[in-house]
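Hi W.,

Here's what went into the run:
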Amino acid sequence: EVQLLESGGGLVQPGGSLRLSCEASGFTFSNSAMTWVRQAPGKGLEWVSTISGGSTSTHYADSVRGRFTISRDNSKGTLYLLMTSLRGEDTAVYYCAKVSAGMAHFDFWGQGTLVTVSS
Amino acid sequence: QSALTQPPSASGTLGQRVSISCSGSGSNLGDNSVNWYQHLPGTAPKLLIFSNSQRPSGVPDRFSGSKSGTSASLAISGLQSEDEAEYYCAAWDDNLMGVVFGGGTRLTVL
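Here's what came out:
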């Protein structure tokens, strides 16, 4: 059974940093690209970033490029999202998801972790 | 403003058939397949349709998808109360080099 468990969310001040983690199990982690998607309060789903299985390729939304860094440790089966220079508009529930055959084809999702950026 | 356009709301009565549209452009729906997600508040989003019209195992055949040119559609037949949720379309965008989601459609079952 595929399981994805996010952690690391919390309250952070504007300009601060936070690192999210996503522990994966139930599939061959290194064979799958992984992605982060977020949902701000009262808003829809927004794609954040995707990383290939071997970390050779990464993609970012314009809204986070230069501030967020996606990475993974295949030996630990864990996906990360380092978020710096955080802004109020980054407040959201952050979901990690497993990428399947297509770049927008996310077949399994975690339950999400809440990030609140506020002073 | 989302690169993919969906109606903000839709509704139907029990047993009825409803359809949700998703409109894009050549760089996303024109060149790439569409995927649909169902999201209930406080839960993980769920893949409903992939590659335009394919259903993952476990998704009832009441759900169907189609795509033509730069438009796509999700149809739900035999509407049930548990179908009340937010629905999103998503696709890769070749110009943005990223994934774009529609703004979401809130389905109400009357």
